[in-house]
Amino acid sequence: MGRFDLEYPKDAINTVKRENDRGVYALKTIHHIINTCQILHVSFNIPTQSFPVILPMIGQMGSFDRPSADIGDPLDLYLHGYVSNRIMNLGRSASDEKGMPVCVAASHVDGLVLALSTFHHSYNYRSTVLFGHAVLVEDEEERMYAMELITNSVVPDRWRHTRLPPTKAELQSTGILKVKIASGSAKINTGGPSDDKKDMEDESIKDQVWTGVLPIHATMGEPLPGPYNRVGVPDHIAEFSKDFNDDNQQYALNAARDLKK
């Protein structure tokens, strides 16, 4: 048996209550969902406003102090944004020394589960919520680490295949938030439809209604060169596109068949 999987401790905040058998607390699983989601939704409160705010952001789990840390280790979440947007300003001015409280959500839809009854339709999905405190990263070395980490989360190895180093203006206009994670949990559903016993025993209904799963997976199309592009598609892009498509398709099919990866 391999290494023991670390878990976020269950508490009143992160414990999955409904369908709790779908709850997952393993750091490895939760961090993987975050790192493979192109958009993270970050929620926070502004003291002067009546409603919470939700912003779509780009982010990635990592450790500046331990860059080689495993995805299943305790990690921080780095978020990228324009230096003067609301969340960056709040992260800069947070009165609590721990930082500004935030919630971060990430979700993947892997299939549409169609049952005999509309009330038993469902999704195959992977979702997670992290709870933590966000602070603005001021240290220049850590900012550069986070920018490279986030860039390479968009396309692996992209950072070194771009024009470097960043200009002073680029660095000044970009803000990085670090979220120290306090707690988190995931909820995952896989498999096919499940119906009431009464419907399952009614042959006439089963003769009329299609049941099953429509797998869903994100797909990258063929790279389209920009108007001033002069080079062929580099290997790091072509290989990533193929791996992205293959992995997503295989997961969606496995989820529909309830095959554990």
TrEMBL record:
| Gene3D superfamilies, alphabetized | Electron Transport, Fmn-binding Protein, Chain A
- SUPFAM superfamilies of this UniProt entry? FMN-binding split barrel
Leader peptide range in chain numbering: none
Q: What is this protein called?
A: Flavin-nucleotide-binding protein
Q: Which organism is it from?
A: Fusarium denticulatum
Upper lineage ranks? Answer: Eukaryota, Fungi, Dikarya, Ascomycota, Pezizomycotina
